[in-house]
Amino acid sequence: MQVTRVEYHTATGWAHAPPAELDSPRTLVLAFGAWSLRDKDAPFAELRRAFPHSVLAGCSTAGEIAGAHVHDASVSVAITAFERTALRAAHTASAGIADSAGAGQRLAEALRADEHGQKLAAVFILSHGVNVNGTELVHGLAAHLPPSVHITGGLAGDDAKFENTWVLAHGAPVSGVVSAVGLYGDALEVGVGVNGGWQDFGPERLITRSEGAVLYELDGRPALDLYKEFLGDFAAELPGSGLLFPLSITRRGTTAPPVVRTLLGIDESARALIFAGDIPQGGVARLMRTTNEQLVQAASAAVDQASGALGGTGPALVVSVSCVGRRLLLGERTDEETEAVLEGVPDGSAHVGFYSNGEIASAVIGAPSELHNQTITVTAYRER
To answer: Which of the four pLDDT bands, split at 50, 70 and 90, describes residue 322?
Structure first.
């Protein structure tokens, strides 16, 4: 396989022309772009012209990852020409939160059949990042695919505005869409790493009332009131300030590791908090915090996990999906996270990705994929 990377910046255009000579039905073009490009199709039109036979996928971001750096007002593109791995793209419109599981099922039905006699090995999924239940989306997808399929991806971002995101469909940015790419065949190796770097603090709170991704009560009290009490002066900046203080959710009666949930919105009238994924009633919630050093260490651990799962040698396509909350915390040190990933990838690899409203991967080898928040996920693809 051949893998390379190019960048587009709104102020200067393409740093290098997209390598049209790599165009083929086995070529995957991933393009992660600034959310403001929703109505500025020029870079995507050029990708469509350069790669008419390739599979194009991508989404809007809260920061575009390109090698060791994070940019805004840009498009970060990776072009991977596989030799023995077949590809298929699918997308579906999503009719709001209630259709999240249905959208996942529709994508699974479009992708699960063999492609030219090769079985499905992996799915990379990208979803609009607001008005979606990421937990149900992933469950709807995974429930209709073989358990051996690696599922990774993320929810599109929009610079922490939580208002309007886009996903590429037929190579053009569209709102309200979920897309996925199926990768087929025995030649494909997939390595996945997930890490957060956060730690719990404060008292445990019983989730006494919730519905889907909406948290109404903790310990019998309105969730929004409790959260505002904790945030103090930060409460006036909700929901954006909620990215700095996510919740750790533990399901009672299970040994599964806790999941992290980041606030996406608030409902003042219901005194409720709206998250990116399910908040299980009867579970236990705790607030979380971290340091810049812990976030960077987590990135190193994630890429080590992903790279370590690959056999053989040679370059890989490496895709990082990191939570927008991590970028807000890291601030000017954000590049330290992406530098840590690049240091751990195989020689000659192309590293791209984006800052997201949610990350999708399996946190434990052999466990089902699920939605995460406040993590960095690293997916590495390489052919044997």
So the answer is: very high
- Percentage of the chain lying above the pLDDT 70 cut: 100
Q: Which tens digits make up the pLDDT trace of 69-118? A: 999 999 999 999 999 999 999 999 998 899 999 999 999 999 998 888 89
d(CA 331, CA 123): 31
Phi, psi (rounded to 5 degrees) for 296: -70, -40
Task: Look up residue 368 and give its amino acid.
Answer: P
For the residues 138-167, what does the mean pLDDT come to? 95
Give the pLDDT mean for 119-124: 97
Q: How far apart are alpha carbons 33 and 38 in whole angstroms?
A: 9
Burial zone of 20 (CB within 10 Å; 0-12 exposed, 13-18 middle, 19+ buried): middle
- 107 burial (CB, 10 Å; 0-12 / 13-18 / 19+) is buried
Looking at residue 215, what is its pLDDT? 96
Tokens of 304: 């080590």
DSSP-based helix, strand, coil % in the chain, nearest 5: 25, 40, 35
Q: Kindly report the pTM of this predicted structure.
A: 0.90
Tokens of 98: 């209630």
- Residue 47's alpha-carbon distances to 89, 170, 245, in angstroms, are 16, 11, 39
**Rounded to a whole number, what is the distance in angstroms from the first to the last CA of the chain?**
9
DSSP string covering 297-355: HHHHHHHHHHHHT--S-S--EEEEEEEHHHHHHHGGGHHHHHHHHHHTSPTT-EEEEEE
State the greatest distance between any 2 C-alpha atoms of the chain, in Å, as a whole number. 62
Structure tokens at 39: 């109505």
Condensed to tens digits (0 to 9), the pLDDT of residues 240-280 reads: 788 788 899 998 877 777 888 888 789 999 999 998 788 99
- How is residue 167 annotated by DSSP? E
Dump the DSSP string for 203-246: EEEEEEEEETTEEEEETTEEHHHHHHHHHGGGGGGTTGGGGGS-
